[in-house]
């Protein structure tokens, strides 16, 4: 399988199952490759582990919901497979740079982005000191 096609299949697979637990047996069946090979090829092509990519995609989608819905943060976290609020908050802060409740208060636009050919998803953004100034954070 062509590497471009492989990545397209992987991203499509992940995006269509973002609110479910990723079934690696199904992934192996869909691609026809072993899980170790899938992980290695994904790491080489995307410069990040398959696990990290999936986590980032879940957090990006959760961030969108945190920002644009009134659903409880626990409900949002649970819908993306986090077992409790602490696990969701820790993962969210590690990826985004702020907690879900802090993000909800910020005036930040979260957009869609092209992930690969024909596949669009929520843009992952990472807050840093520069982007947080004037975005609802108290400046001292």
Q: Give me the strand/helix succession.
A: HHHHHHHEEH
Residue runs with pLDDT of under 50 for 5 or more positions: 129-140
Helix tally equals 8
Helix content: 55-70%
How far from one another are the termini?
54 Å
Helical/strand content category: mainly alpha
Q: Sheet bearing the most strands, described?
A: 2 strands, antiparallel
Q: Beta fraction of the residues?
A: 5-15%
Q: Residue-averaged pLDDT, rounded?
A: 87
What is the CA-atom radius of gyration, in angstroms?
16 Å
CATH architecture label name: Orthogonal Bundle
Count the domains.
Answer: 1
Q: What is the CATH class name?
A: Mainly Alpha
- Classify the fold: give the CATH topology: Arc Repressor Mutant, subunit A
**Coarse morphology:** globular
Strand order of the largest sheet: 1-2
Organism: Ruminiclostridium papyrosolvens DSM 2782
GO molecular function, one term: sequence-specific DNA binding
InterPro entries: Homeodomain-like_sf (IPR009057), HTH_AraC (IPR018060), MarA-like (IPR050959), Tscrpt_reg_AraC-type_HTH (IPR020449)
Pfam families: HTH_18 (PF12833)
